[in-house]
From TrEMBL:
Keywords per UniProt: Lyase
Protein's name according to its UniProt entry: Probable 5-dehydro-4-deoxyglucarate dehydratase
Pfam families the record matches: DHDPS
Record SUPFAM superfamilies: Aldolase
Length: 293
């Protein structure tokens, strides 16, 4: 399968039932909504998919479900993380479940040195058996020299930037031009035009989870969505800790499929924020309807 990550990809949420258990039926229904919208790829069990809340068995089941629903029509990447030993276990589970590649989330807790980050990726590449994408954010921040080394590791294909330092990113792109770069900031649409100006046009879209028509309309150039939907969404997202995940999951639940609540330590949005979310979603959909009329 040819991996083309030069346009919008889907980062689905992971469904739980009322008791907090993995719920595969609504998860697969959610995946079908995502697939029907035509993303470039599915990224299962990543940040929006609450990778950090899943057991290894739950993770394997969710990745298998994503692979089954995609049915070879587009690539499925799975998130992996924690320290090197645990990341290897998740990588093995993803490979056995049929994933096409891996998004490597930052290591848990510690802030590693540049050498430590490179050793981590070399160890994963040696055993994973799947293409790897590095996710730069939080405690996994690379230098340009390190990205040049990273790009030489067999199996490294991409670099997802969640830092937002465009000067640094340009220097990385200059020394490692063969990697596929994409914007991984929260509500990436807000910074998409800035990234595109330096040649990074692909980005991850949490909005795709609950309003793919809005996500694709903005990708297609409907600029009115920025002031009318995306900027207000960022203001709403910033009203609660963890809303980058829980607000998205609430929107999926209210519009499409009952994917359940987030797992602790995350919490669901407050009722007044859900009302704002409903109003904002309708506002965004109205802009799309007018823009495509």
């Amino acid at each position: 399968m040819t991996l083309q990550l030069d346009r919008l990809s889907s980062f689905p949420v992971t469904a739980f039932d009322a008791d907090g258990n993995l719920a595969l039926d609504p998860y697969r229904e959610h995946l079908r909504h995502q697939l029907d919208a035509g993303p470039a790829a599915i990224f299962a069990c990543c940040g929006t998919g609450e990778f950090f809340s899943l057991t290894l068995d739950e993770y394997a089941a969710a990745v298998r479900a994503a692979v089954a629903e995609a049915a070879g029509a587009l690539p499925v990447f799975a998130g992996i993380g924690y320290g090197t030993a645990m990341a290897r276990q998740f990588a093995a589970a993803a490979r056995e479940a049929g994933a096409d590649g891996l998004l490597v989330l930052p290591p848990y807790l510690v802030k590693p040195s540049q050498q430590g980050l490179l050793d981590h990726f070399r160890a994963l590449a040696a055993t994973a058996g799947l293409p790897l994408i590095a996710y730069q954010r939080d405690n996994a921040i690379f230098t340009a020299d390190s990205v040049a080394e990273l790009a030489r590791i067999p199996g490294m294909i991409g670099f997802k930037d969640g830092l937002g330092d465009l000067d640094l990113l340009q220097r990385m792109m200059a020394v490692a031009p063969d990697l596929t770069y994409f914007n991984g900031l929260p509500t990436a649409e807000v910074t998409a035009r800035s990234y595109a100006a330096i040649g990074v046009r692909a980005y991850s879209s949490a909005v795709h989870c609950f309003a793919p028509e809005i996500a694709h309309a903005y990708e297609g150039g409907l600029e009115e969505l920025l002031p009318e939907f995306y900027l207000p969404l960022v203001r709403l997202r910033d009203k609660g800790a963890g809303y980058a995940v829980s607000l998205v999951k609430a929107a999926v639940r209210r519009r499409w499929t009952d994917v359940g609540s987030v797992r602790s330590p995350l919490t669901d949005p407050l009722p007044e924020h859900l009302e704002e979310l409903d109003q904002l979603l309708e506002q965004g959909l109205t802009v799309v309807r007018k823009g495509t009329a």
